[in-house]
Design brief:
Number of strands: 0
Distance between the termini: 74 Å
Largest sheet: none
Order of helices and strands: HHHHH
Strand content: under 5%
Number of helices: 5
Length: 135
């Protein structure tokens, strides 16, 4: 495995371009042995493939961690639905869909019990009117 440092020109590449071959130094002898063993076992054809997969897994896991953390904050009432979806890196409707698939109820705030009852009555009357027009 070649070792080297990331050149400044390679520090950022847009998503439309491919990432140039990165050369890294592995300072941990244990990690170096593990990388060599994975390649030697045929699990990866070369160090580059192993590094790319490791980076993909890191990004995927980080997204999952952000999502889990934002759901936790939302459930604890520490952030709004909009802020939680922003923290998760999702559109609000995507975030709501995740909540739904996980069986998490959406928090709806109302000013008072009376306001809630009025809202429920309004929804019921809307559904009654809608079902009358279908008949």
């Amino acid at each position: 495995m070649k070792t080297g440092k990331l050149a400044k020109s390679d520090a950022y590449v847009s998503s439309e371009e491919s990432i140039p071959m990165l050369q890294i130094e592995i300072h941990s002898p244990t990690l170096k042995k593990e990388v060599d063993a994975l390649i030697g076992a045929g699990l990866y054809p070369d160090p580059h493939t192993l590094i790319v997969e490791a980076l993909e897994n890191l990004v995927r896991e980080k997204k999952k961690s952000r999502l889990d953390a934002s759901i936790q904050l939302y459930q604890a009432g520490e952030v709004t639905l909009a802020r939680a979806s922003e923290l998760a890196g999702l559109h609000r409707f995507e975030f709501e869909e995740v909540l739904k698939t996980r069986g998490i109820l959406k928090i709806v705030e109302v000013g008072s019990v009376e306001e809630l009852k009025e809202g429920v009555s309004l929804i019921k009357s809307f559904h009654r009117e809608k079902s009358k027009t279908k008949e």
